[in-house]
Specification:
106 residues, alpha+beta, Ubiquitin-like (UB roll), five-stranded mixed sheet, 3 helices, binds FE2/S2 (inorganic) cluster
């Protein structure tokens, strides 16, 4: 099991325990995390699954691929910590991940 914490746009914090499989977006949707709309179903085509990840997690995952970076570049809430949750595979190394959902999706 790994532990993942979401900070919703309201500031509410949700900590979930899960087996390390699937994507961060799927975990958010399955648990009704506020602000994650995921309108394209995880095909990197909508940008409505954006999260801001904690620094430790960012150091443990590969950088965004071109299609993810292109989609993120369209967001006014882009920060160096921005990633698309549908592109983040949950692995054992990501135990302790913290993902803040930007205001725009709330
Ligand atoms: S679900 Fe659409 S970009 Fe992630």
């Amino acid at each position: 099991m790994i532990r993942v914490t979401f900070i919703e746009p309201t500031g509410d914090t949700r900590t979930l325990e899960t087996v390390p499989s699937g994507s961060l977006m799927h975990l958010a949707l399955a648990n009704g995390v506020a602000g994650i709309l995921a309108e394209c179903g995880g095909t990197c085509g909508c940008g409505t699954c954006q999260v801001h990840l904690d620094e430790q997690t960012l150091e443990r995952i590969p950088p965004a691929a071109d299609d993810e970076a292109d989609m993120l570049s369209l967001s006014e809430y882009l920060t160096p910590a921005s990633r698309l949750a549908c592109q983040i595979k949950l692995t054992p190394e990501l135990d302790g991940l913290i993902a803040k959902v930007p205001e725009i999706q709330g």
